[in-house]
Write a structure and sequence with these properties.
Blueprint lengths: L1 H25 L24 E3 L14 H5 L5 E7 L13 E9 L8 H5 L5 E3 L14 E2 L1 H4 L20 H5 L8 H9 L16
Antiparallel strand pairs: 1-4, 2-3, 3-5
This protein binds iron/sulfur cluster (SF4) (2 copies).
One iron/sulfur cluster binds next to α2.
């Protein structure tokens, strides 16, 4: 009994010191937290972040305004309104008959499930690794087509402009178009960019 009471006495006596020991040892451990936003962890390669509307190698848009992404979305976050390409008026935005005239994604609703990109028949819609989508007002979280369109790459011309001469829509999907041609460039230089029919209206996502 005497040994038990002595053991209890010493453990009580050194308990605060043992606590400080844990604190002291922790001071020399590797820090697990980080100074976000100054330091950002890279995401996994297949992380589903902000969407992107892709372009063909000559700059025409891949979206054909079919609305399948909007129908697939369980959160009703996508609004698409298709339009007709019109070569006579110099308003060709995609290789097919139709293009995405209005395209919006409401990030207040999106749950980043990826069903929309699965539904897209042309791979026009994909998701990037970008995850910084916070804002301080609701309106700015409805992204427009201009915000979602992929940046221009080398060899591209911004739509609208004609398709590559002699190519059909299917040729674009078979990878036969690799960059804008001289003929397309000449057309582009001769036609001051017509009024951008893809300009957003103030219409909001349903
Ligand atoms: S990721 Fe999911 S919730 Fe977000 S827009 Fe696509 S289908 Fe809708
Ligand atoms: S992003 Fe794809 S699914 Fe959505 S309207 Fe455009 S082509 Fe159709």
């Amino acid at each position: 009994m005497a040994d038990d009471s002595q053991g209890g006495f010493f453990s009580e006596l050194f308990a605060p010191v043992a606590g400080f020991g844990v604190t002291f040892a922790t001071m020399f451990r590797k820090v697990a937290t980080q100074e976000y936003p100054e330091v950002k962890w890279p995401t996994q390669p297949r992380f589903h972040g902000r969407h992107q509307l892709n372009r063909h190698p000559d700059g025409l848009e891949k979206c054909v305004g079919c609305e399948l992404c909007a129908w697939a979305c369980p959160a009703d976050a996508i609004f698409v309104q298709g339009g007709d390409n019109d070569d006579e008026r110099g308003l060709r935005f995609s290789p097919g008959e139709r293009y995405g005239h209005i395209y919006q994604i409401n990030y207040l609703r999106c749950i980043f499930c990826g069903l929309c990109i699965e539904a897209c028949p042309t791979r026009a819609l994909t998701m990037t690794n970008e995850y910084e989508l916070a804002d301080n007002n609701r309106a700015d979280l409805i992204f427009t087509k201009e915000q979602l369109l992929a940046p221009m790459q080398e060899g591209m011309l911004p739509a609208p402009h004609p398709m590559v001469d002699g190519m059909e829509e299917r040729d674009y999907y078979q990878g036969k178009v690799t960059a804008a041609t001289d003929e397309q460039r000449r057309w582009f230089e001769q036609h001051a960019a017509p009024a951008d029919e893809s300009a957003e209206t103030t219409e909001e996502v349903r």
